[in-house]
Design brief:
Number of helices: 12
Helix content: 40-55%
Distance between the termini: 36 Å
Order of helices and strands: EHEHEHEHHEEHEEEHEEHEEHEHHH
Structural class: alpha/beta
Radius of gyration: 19 Å
CATH superfamily of the largest domain: NAD(P)-binding Rossmann-like Domain
CATH topology of the largest domain: Rossmann fold
Length: 319
């Protein structure tokens, strides 16, 4: 990777991926593209471009102008948000991917498009979910992810496009607030623990889900895109994971640092149904074997860092 375009740069992952990649590859070699001008302003220490990812002509123009060799397509409506307007989710999620793949094919670019644990469904083995297994999601978000994995593999085998992807679990960040995902509680709980000393969880006790701290998520993108392609037996898409827990476990971990913290429940039926269809834990041995995936954060290390970083935000009056 030498010249990188991040589409959907203002989103939960994109807004942190931009400065992360600029720190590695140079500020002027990472172009941030998004439709939201305010989000672009926050990333304007380097090159930015206003882009509706469904506008293929403008998309291609940016790639040509900046001589892009790698596209990170981070555009997506997330799981819970997508259920409110499924056809809009399909249009945005698949339209952005189609443009990314076609423009990459025409301009010799590599493409990274994140998949998700949402690609799995209720008939998938839920414990130690295999890399290669049945995938029958029950959300439009999941349907888009499965279709995206298959389409990306097709562009690799049919046209030789260097497509790569990971199946992200829930991502926990101390920088960017969540935006309509089923795993949002695992971010919100830290903010409410600091601000209110209590939290009302919208997923029920016993709901185990794989999670990943944002620094590991960002690192996975670089690790995979820099990996030797001859060692990649899988491309779209690799299971990756770092920790699996339910609300009771994360609450107990927070109580180690805030002994008076309490949690109760007000379960969101839609989010609970989605979570129940997803894996409790994934087998990421293929990622570890094929490109050296090795996360640095477990629940304990992440919780210490999250509480420290969130507390600083509140002390500075940022929330």
């Amino acid at each position: 990777m030498k010249k990188i375009l991040i589409v959907g740069a203002g989103g939960q992952i994109g807004s942190e991926l931009v400065p992360y990649l600029r720190g590695i590859y140079g500020v002027n070699n990472v172009v941030a593209a998004d439709l939201d001008e305010a989000k672009l302003q926050a990333l304007s220490d380097g090159p930015v471009a206003k882009l509706n990812a469904l506008d293929g002509e403008r998309f291609a123009e940016i790639v040509k102008t900046h001589k892009i060799d790698t596209i990170f397509n981070m555009v997506a409506l997330l799981s819970a948000t997508g259920e409110k307007d499924p056809m809009l989710a399909w249009k945005i999620n698949m339209g952005a991917l189609e443009n990314s793949l076609n423009i990459a094919k025409d301009n010799g670019c590599a493409v990274f498009t994140p998949s998700s644990i949402g690609a799995f469904g209720p008939n998938t083995p839920h414990d130690n979910t295999p890399q290669d297994t049945i995938m029958q999601p029950t959300t439009i978000y999941g349907v888009c992810k499965v279709a995206g994995e298959m389409l990306s593999d097709y562009y690799h085998t049919r046209f030789g496009v260097d497509t790569r992807s990971v199946r992200f679990p829930g991502i926990i960040s101390n920088v960017t607030l969540p935006g309509g995902g089923t795993t949002d509680y695992a971010v919100e709980i830290y903010y409410d623990a600091i601000k209110y000393n209590k939290y009302t969880c919208n997923l029920g006790a016993g709901t185990f889900l794989d999670m990943l701290y944002m620094p590991d998520a960002l690192d996975s993108c670089v690790q995979l895109m820099e990996a030797d392609p001859t060692k990649l037996k899988h491309r779209n898409s690799f299971n990756i994971a770092a920790m699996s827990f339910d609300p009771e476990i994360i609450a107990a971990e927070i109580k180690k640092h805030i002994p008076t913290f309490t949690m109760d429940y007000n379960v969101d039926a839609v989010k609970q149904a989605i979570a129940n269809s997803w894996p409790n834990s994934m087998d990421d041995s293929c990622a570890r074997a094929e490109w050296g995936w090795n996360p640095k954060y477990d629940l304990n290390k992440m919780t210490i860092d999250m509480l420290d970083k969130v507390r600083v935000k509140f002390d500075k009056g940022m929330y």
